[in-house]
Amino acid sequence: EANVATGYHAIEFLLWGQDLHGTGPGAGERPYTDYDLANCTSGNCDRRTQYLKSASDLLVSDLQDMVNEW
User: Alpha-carbon distance 29 to 47, whole Å?
Assistant: First the structure.
């Protein structure tokens, strides 16, 4: 196992949460309220939102760098 803090996997986890279904059908089930600042369900909604934005911005920047190098 690896600790993935940036990139696609981090963004996927932030959007869908942990997949507790194993090899069965389904995926993570993160509720939208984990990002709802007015009705936060599990705390740290502001930090989670900020991290998702930062991780997404970094991914876009890295991909743009790759395009420019290509």
Answer: 19
Write out pLDDT tens, residues 9-55: 899 999 998 888 888 877 788 899 999 999 998 889 999 999 999 99
Q: What DSSP string describes the chain?
A: -----SSHHHHHHHHH----STTSS------GGGS-TTS-SSS-HHHHHHHHHHHHHHHHHHHHHHHHH-
- Cβ-based neighbour number of residue 55 at 10 Å: 19
Alpha carbon of residue 4 to chain centroid: 11
